[in-house]
Amino acid sequence: xxxxxxxxxxxxxxxxxxxxxxxxxxxxxxxxxxxxxxxxxxxxxxxxxxxxxxxxxxxxxxxxxxxxxxxxxxxxxxxxxxxxxxxxxxxxxxxxxxxxxxxxxxxxxxxxxxxxxxxxxxxxxxxxxxxxxxxxxxxxxxxxxxxxxxxxxxxxxxxxxxxxxxxxxxxxxxxxxxxxxxxxxxxxxxxxxxxxxxxxxxxxxxxxxxxxxxxxxxxxxxxxxxxxxxxxxxxxxxxxxxxxxxxxxxxxxxxxxxxxxxxxxxxxxxxxxxxxxxxxxxxxxxxxx
Length: 289
Fold this sequence. Notes:
- This protein is an alpha+beta fold.
- 40% of the residues lie in helices and 25% in strands.
- The chain has a domain at 125-288: Thrombin, subunit H (Beta Barrel).
């Protein structure tokens, strides 16, 4: 019985499906035609359905609105953070440029201070920049400059700043660099003259941060007072030309046994934090030959 009527049932279902499909297609075509012609009953139906769906849509909007706001907040925060980072980088660049401009202005001022030194007069000279301070771990009395033999610098030439003598070239310089021994070195000696006297004395370094000491050559009856200026003597064959400022007398003592005055002299030139120095191309031995 089942096998007998089975084919008939299958054919019936297939026919119904085809009928339903054709009906839906014709209905869709009819609705599209009526909508295109602005069929009023159909438009009212659409408005009714829209009114029915609108509350559901509004409710869904309310449900998902916080999610949307949260997502917008996340993306907005990322954009704000990126803008802040860009501003921070720009501020850092501006601050760096300001520091560079300030440093350049200071260096220019220091360089100008080395030009036209009043006591140099017509002595040839070279301005050099200090590139290394305190050469070596145990050497507190040397600096290195970026001028050398190619600039005419030779061993023993005096090195000055606007304040006065700070040292001398020590050793044979390289082509583009030289070593300067500072006058604070305890082994440094220079012939000096107290302004207003005729006695040539010998001053030596007293150590870092300490005054110079004059312990030789100044007779006990020579008139010297605190505040007197001390300059290079410039005696014959001296490494240093006459008249370079050395310092100011700050204390006077007496060696009765040797009939000498002992002077404490505060250097007029600061040897700390040097930036630019002037090397005097002064070589009395070369001038004689």
